[in-house]
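Lecture notes, continued. The same structure-token format from the folding unit now serves as the input rather than the output. Read the line below as a description of shape only.
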């Protein structure tokens, strides 16, 4: 089953310093029928104005992944970590027993746009930790590039404390790749830019446009194709229990 969530169906807001859309219940937005997809709790699509950001605030027992799409994001936390990341880098914070952090846009002239993802960890009470990893942006083309997973490659893929993998990919017009979904698992697809066709093994397909998402179960083979009329399609695929 492929359930499509159009971009317009998300909860969107504009606070001036912060614009964004929530794919799941978050903050002031609550829908009892849209609180999670497996261990996935949050997919926030945020744009932060120059010089603005989130003040010090706590988290616990959550895996938090930040993927910068444009601009820069500065992170500082109670563990002593200070890092500025941009496109081609991923931040992972395991809040565990508790951590306090701030996030803001260090630029005085440019916005920062990012995806922030939250996942329930494999168990509660983990030791808090943080890392920032870099991936080869050229490696996005024509394949699913893992940027975070439980079986992480040290120094190149962020290590998540959950049985899952986050992939990014860019496909040229008309290009296709295939993903095999193991029995009993879920797939979340989010189109960052472009247009993507998600084909079932039965031959039917769903079309996702920019910022659309899909939640997929019981589809053992997925063919992912970029629309022939769009130069490039950029998307995220998450394999999770």
């Amino acid at each position: 089953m492929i359930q499509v969530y159009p971009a317009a169906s998300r909860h969107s807001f504009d606070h001036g310093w912060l614009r964004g859309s929530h794919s799941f219940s978050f903050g002031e937005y609550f829908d009892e029928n849209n609180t999670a997809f497996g261990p996935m709790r949050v997919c926030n699509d945020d744009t932060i104005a120059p010089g603005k950001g989130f003040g010090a605030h706590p988290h616990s027992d959550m895996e938090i992944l930040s993927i910068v799409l444009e601009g820069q994001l500065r992170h500082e936390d109670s563990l002593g970590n200070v890092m500025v990341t941009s496109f081609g880098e991923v931040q992972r914070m395991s809040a565990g027993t508790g951590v306090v952090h701030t996030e803001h846009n260090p630029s005085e002239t440019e916005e920062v746009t990012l995806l922030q993802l939250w996942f329930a960890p494999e168990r509660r009470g983990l030791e808090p930790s943080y890392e920032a990893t870099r991936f080869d942006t050229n490696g996005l083309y024509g394949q699913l590039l893992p940027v975070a997973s439980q079986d992480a490659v040290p120094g190149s893929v962020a290590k998540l404390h959950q049985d899952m993998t986050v992939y990014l990919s860019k496909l040229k017009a008309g290009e296709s790749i295939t993903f095999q979904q193991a029995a009993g698992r879920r797939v979340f697809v989010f189109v960052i830019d472009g247009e993507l066709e998600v084909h079932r093994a039965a031959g039917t397909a769903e079309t996702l446009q920019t910022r659309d998402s899909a939640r997929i179960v019981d589809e053992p083979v997925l063919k992912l194709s970029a629309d022939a009329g769009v130069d490039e399609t950029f998307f995220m695929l998450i394999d999770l229990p």
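Point for the exam: The domain at 8-134 is CATH 2.60.120.10 (Jelly Rolls).
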